[in-house]
Amino acid sequence: MDNCRVGPGFPVWLQSQTELSYVRLTNAGISGAIPEEWMSNISTRIRILDLSNNIITGKLPFQYNFPDLLAIDFSDNQFDGTILSSVCSIQYLQALDLHNNQLSGEFPKEWSLWSDIGSVDVLTNNLFGNIPSSMGIPSSLAILKMDNSHFSGEIPSELRNCSVLERLYLERNQLQEAYLLG
Questions:
Q1: Which tens digit of pLDDT belongs to each residue from 122-160?
Q2: Torsion sign over Cα 78, 68, 116, 2
Q3: Is-above-0.85 flag for pTM?
Q4: Cβ atoms 113, 137 nearer than 8 A
């Protein structure tokens, strides 16, 4: 449901739904944290989870087992804390969109665990440190958006291994250019 105001709190009717495989509540006026019990109940069934453009706060809920999750969109919220390395253990994840939150810390180095990832968007956060060289391991990566953060160091030359990479956004960081194709 897009642009359907169900907030401000996390909808009680939604919390009672435990058999969902596709959740899309964008710009729904939802505020506060995602209820842990609901996330735990749906984690084994969910395939698409889109809660973008709300006012959701708290830590990212990646401590659960998501055996069938294909896409996560938590963009344009107020999540804080770090991106836990457990997100990289979501085996079939194809799209991760966390842009425009208040996330900080380094991007997980376990990136190479994703074999099917096609799109990663973490722009406009407070992420810092080096971009992991393991980002060049999943050859399925087509879109990488990491601009407007605090990444530093060299752009990993391993990105040249991403044979289907179409879009690479790294501007507004403190990165040193490197020759990616050589």
A1: 999 999 999 988 887 778 999 999 999 999 999 888 888
A2: negative
A3: yes
A4: no
